[in-house]
Every structure is written in C-alpha cells, then in structure tokens.
Write a structure and sequence with these properties.
- This protein is of the alpha/beta class.
- It has a single domain, classed as Endonuclease, Chain A, CATH 3.40.960.
- The protein is built from two helices and five strands.
- The protein has a five-stranded mixed sheet with strand order 1-2-3-4-5.
- A hairpin with a 2-residue loop joins strand 1 and strand 2.
- The protein is globular.
C-alpha cells in the first residue's frame, strides 16, 4: 500500500518530552509540533532546549494550527534530519 514503511504516532514520548506527532519514513524520523494560541506563552529557553534535544535524532517541523495542509506536507517532504522548519 501507499503507507508501507510509514509509521505515525500521536502524543509520543521523547525522553522527558512529548511531541504532538512523530512520522517515521524509512530512516527519516520527523517530529511535528502544532503551535496553538497558547504557545506564545511558553518559556522560550525551555523550548530552545527541547528543540535541541529533539533535533539530535529527529527533523522538526513546527507549524501554527491554521497553516495550510499543502504547506505542511511540503515541509514534511523537504525537512532533513536535525533541521527545524517553522511554518507560520
């Protein structure tokens, strides 16, 4: 099927953190973080450390809850391991 070799997990633990979604496609592991309105109140230093930890083994795509599906899929297709893409 089209989804052979494709793993998808929601609210997945990574170390002491949780990420909204994990996608595993072959050797590429991607963490997806959906930022809602409350995200602007998060601790910036804590988020930086969290991103640093995540990108040791994963690519990271951060997106706002209202980003288009097309924009999100394009980011997922181009992100590389250890990289962070921020969509607004």
């Amino acid at each position: 099927t089209a989804f052979d070799g494709f793993d998808f997990h929601h609210n997945h633990p990574l170390g002491r953190y949780r990420v909204d979604f994990i996608i595993v496609i072959g050797d590429l592991k991607i963490a997806l973080e959906c930022n809602g309105y409350e995200h602007r109140y998060y601790n910036a230093e804590r988020e930086r450390k969290r991103e640093e930890f995540i990108t040791q083994n994963y690519a990271l795509v951060r997106f706002n809850h209202d980003v288009s599906l097309e924009k999100l899929i394009n980011a997922i297709l181009r992100v590389k391991s250890g990289e962070i893409i921020r969509l607004t």
